[in-house]
Specification:
single chain; 304 residues; alpha/beta; Aminopeptidase; seven-stranded mixed sheet; two-stranded antiparallel ribbon; globular
């Protein structure tokens, strides 16, 4: 596969925030348990923060503004998963650069100076919202790029970031299914505390957690109910499948009839971070303990 040709640096941003950048690094990291003892995989596709210099220079936004599309610190909130026998997969590239929770080529043709190949999906609700595989806007609706893009550059991004991440996820799923007879994927995300201009319910305060299982199509209903009960025991408010019923990962991999169950978890960012400065606040450590207790509960879940 093509490798990113950009040179990388370590960039300081306002408020003592940083974005991590480096050259020829893997598109993902996997934290493995000493032995996988439960049929679970935890994944964090949107917490990566390695920003290519060329990408930042091509953007009209500051690094902190770009980071508002991240599910910042979600990989840290779920970092105890290996302690309970499950691997944790996390993307190292940022969502604003390539979004692995989309189809491989789900692109807005108005963003490009050249014509897109026929295999590209140019018509979807996510594209209309500006949030395709390569987003046109950040979460609050501000445009990312100064000028139109070349498809060849985006193809390189997808080949060097998106595909390796999904190949790693597919391998984890297959290994888990072979070992246990089935696999449960927990796809871990965060959401803005207030619905934005391109969201359902703009301006509305959100619950603590949204659980999505594609309206019971991507996992057994008892898994969603069990997870919901565990979260409620931690004092967290829950909503099911609204406003998020699951993205590409949940819908693509969640095939209960084939032994793969996928559940998406969205966590309200105000519980643990300053959404403007992208900084943890004191609530992070309390939420970390709650998430860890939920992981423990999930390690006891019996699908039968």
């Amino acid at each position: 596969m093509d490798q990113l040709a950009n040179s990388f640096t370590h960039l300081e941003t306002s408020g003592h925030q940083t974005v991590e950048t480096d050259n020829n690094q893997s598109a993902f990291q996997i934290l493995y348990p000493d032995e996988q003892t439960i049929p679970f995989i935890f994944a964090s596709p949107h917490s990566g923060r390695r920003y290519p210099t060329a990408f930042i220079e091509a953007s009209r936004l500051t690094p902190v503004m770009l980071r508002r599309s991240e599910d910042s610190f979600i990989d840290e909130l779920f970092s105890k998963a290996p302690n309970y026998g499950a691997p944790l997969l996390k993307a190292t590239f940022p969502r604003a650069y390539v979004d692995p929770n989309r189809e491989p080529f789900e692109l807005d043709p108005t963003m490009f100076e050249d014509q897109l190949p026929d295999y590209v999906n140019t018509n979807s609700a996510k594209i209309s919202a500006g949030l395709g595989t390569v987003a046109r806007v950040v979460i609050n609706g501000e445009n990312i790029y100064r000028k139109k893009l070349k498809f060849s550059e985006i193809k390189r991004r997808v080949e060097s970031s998106y595909f390796p991440y999904h190949q790693a996820l597919q391998q984890l799923i297959e290994n888990t299914r072979i070992k246990f007879g089935f696999c449960i994927l927990i796809d871990c995300h965060s959401m803005p505390s207030i619905g934005g201009p391109i969201d359902d319910g703009p301006g509305n305060n959100r619950v603590d957690i949204v659980l999505g299982n594609n309206h019971d199509a991507s996992c057994a209903p008892q898994l969603l109910s069990y997870t919901s009960a565990s979260l409620k025991r931690q004092g967290l408010s829950i909503c099911r499948n609204k406003p998020y019923s699951g993205g590409y990962t949940t819908c693509h991999y969640g095939k209960p009839d084939k032994g793969v169950h996928a559940l998406q978890i969205e966590i309200n960012r105000s519980l643990y971070m300053n959404e403007t400065n992208i900084e943890k606040h004191g609530g992070f450590f309390e939420l970390f303990d709650k998430v860890t207790r939920v992981i423990f509960d999930l390690s006891k879940f019996n699908l039968n």
